[in-house]
Amino acid sequence: MEARTAPLAFRRPVExxxxxxxAVVDDWxxxxxLAHLLPRxxxxxxxxxxxxxxxxxxxxxxxxxxxxxxxxxxxGYVHMVATSPNHRKRGLGRDLYQHFFDDVAAxxxxxxxxxxxxxxxxxxxxxxxxxxxxxxxPGTQRLYGTSAYPDYEGDGRDMVVFSKRxxx
Length: 168
Ligand SMILES: CC(C)(COP(=O)(O)OP(=O)(O)OC[C@H]1O[C@@H](n2cnc3c(N)ncnc32)[C@H](O)[C@@H]1OP(=O)(O)O)[C@@H](O)C(=O)NCCC(=O)NCCS
Fold this sequence. Notes:
Elements: E1 9-11, H1 18-28, H2 42-45, E2 51-54, E3 60-68, E4 75-83, H3 92-105, E5 111-117, H4 121-129, E6 133-134, E7 141-143, E8 146-148, E9 159-165
The structure holds coenzyme A.
Residues 1, 28-29, 80-83, 88-94, 116, 120, 122-123, 125-126, 129-130 line the site of coenzyme A.
């Protein structure tokens, strides 16, 4: 992994950040049309468990949006995490997750979950590298070389389900 070239500042997102986050999503996900997955509500109601990383001049370097489950307060969930292509493979994605782990562990969370499209090799490599396990339970199939749930989010939308115990 390359050394980080300049220090980054981590802060809570605010609603006014929505436009600049949504503007980078399709590009940062390699041209996939995913901006609709980040509606403004994430920057209205989930900022207390979400993070933005910026360079000294305020350029967006990465973000993570997540929350503590209202149904099960022992579970945290990360909806989206991404880093700028200019800042990848330098530990920023791991740092964003660590900020989230620290946040939610302090609120009693013991397990963090996330999902990703079964064909997203980068996301699967990243999540497993930072300690997430892949759910290979009943209903999963080997898809794109990984255990995944076929049609998890609807027809043809096959997803890998990750989980990581905190404090283990
Ligand atoms: C996935 C993503 C967030 C990783 O961010 P990053 O800043 O490059 O990650 P880090 O540098 O913190 O890497 C952490 C670990 O993941 C591994 N990793 C990162 N990118 C990887 C890749 N392309 N393939 C395999 N492993 C990878 C690193 O090697 C590192 O492991 P190590 O510490 O054992 O060396 C980034 O590539 C991205 O934004 N991708 C597009 C959006 C996306 O797919 N998000 C995830 C789904 S919501």
